[in-house]
């Protein structure tokens, strides 16, 4: 029986996961993935245009498979969900930068390298992040504005999401070297300061931040960070 396109795609992703896990991103080629999947490289390219696209899809699948992430995306759009989403992003990136997950740190470094080179991997990953989180962010922000807990910004909601993402990404990068580039202070204080800065930046009122952020920051992470870093 002829294999369906979706089944073939999953077969390729499974082979790619094994290759990336064994050889890392730099040591894996589309040719080696095709061989592991027992297909031609030309057939692989019919499903994924490049190694960067393949890796971005794997990271997106891992994120979708995370039960905590799935639970968050399933919550009703609200100010509380928005704060949970933003504070969770801050905690995730700072956790990577502070060495809680070596694999995620390598992915973060790959994301940075992509920006300095052709940007291909970064573009693919940003698209995946937007597909996963963008709509939820917009819905939650709209809910916060409607409830009077946020002020509508002149900036497009999607832009506000990326402003927040890039802010915490850059802050995390300053902590990657063994001696941080900027002496922000403790991780806990930086987590709070970044979360407050981002929430104010996207328009939340001080009252809303005070109402929801303390509770969110008091919650321990359910597990080490495993979602897409970019």
From TrEMBL:
<feature type="domain" description="HTH tetR-type">
    <location>
        <begin position="6"/>
        <end position="66"/>
    </location>
</feature>
<dbReference type="InterPro" id="IPR023772">
    <property type="entry name" value="DNA-bd_HTH_TetR-type_CS"/>
</dbReference>
<protein>
    <submittedName>
        <fullName>Putative transcriptional regulator, TetR family</fullName>
    </submittedName>
</protein>
<dbReference type="GO" id="GO:0000976">
    <property type="term" value="F:transcription cis-regulatory region binding"/>
</dbReference>
<dbReference type="InterPro" id="IPR050109">
    <property type="entry name" value="HTH-type_TetR-like_transc_reg"/>
</dbReference>
<feature type="DNA-binding region" description="H-T-H motif">
    <location>
        <begin position="29"/>
        <end position="48"/>
    </location>
</feature>
<dbReference type="InterPro" id="IPR001647">
    <property type="entry name" value="HTH_TetR"/>
</dbReference>
<dbReference type="Pfam" id="PF00440">
    <property type="entry name" value="TetR_N"/>
</dbReference>
<keyword id="KW-0238">DNA-binding</keyword>
<dbReference type="InterPro" id="IPR009057">
    <property type="entry name" value="Homeodomain-like_sf"/>
</dbReference>
<dbReference type="GO" id="GO:0003700">
    <property type="term" value="F:DNA-binding transcription factor activity"/>
</dbReference>
């Amino acid at each position: 029986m002829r294999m369906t396109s979706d089944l073939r795609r999953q077969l390729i992703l499974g082979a790619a996961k094994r290759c990336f896990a064994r050889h890392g991103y730099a040591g894996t080629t589309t040719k080696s993935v095709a061989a592991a999947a027992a297909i031609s490289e030309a057939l692989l390219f019919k499903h994924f245009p490049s190694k960067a696209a393949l890796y971005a899809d794997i990271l997106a699948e891992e994120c979708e498979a995370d039960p905590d992430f799935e639970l968050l995306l399933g919550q009703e759009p609200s100010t509380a969900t928005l704060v949970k989403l933003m504070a969770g992003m801050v905690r995730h990136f700072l956790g990577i930068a502070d060495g809680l997950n070596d694999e995620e740190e390598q992915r973060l470094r790959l994301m940075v390298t992509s920006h300095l080179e052709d940007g291909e991997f970064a573009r693919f990953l940003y698209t995946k992040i937007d597909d996963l989180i963008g709509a939820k962010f917009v819905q939650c922000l709209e809910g916060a504005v409607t409830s009077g807990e946020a002020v509508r910004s002149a900036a497009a909601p999607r832009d506000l999401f990326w402003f927040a993402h890039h802010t915490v990404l850059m802050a995390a990068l300053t902590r990657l070297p063994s001696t941080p580039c900027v002496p922000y202070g403790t991780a806990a204080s930086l987590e709070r300061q970044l979360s407050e800065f981002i929430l104010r930046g996207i328009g939340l009122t001080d009252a809303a931040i005070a109402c929801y952020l303390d509770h969110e920051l008091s919650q321990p992470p359910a597990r080490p960070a495993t979602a897409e870093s970019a």
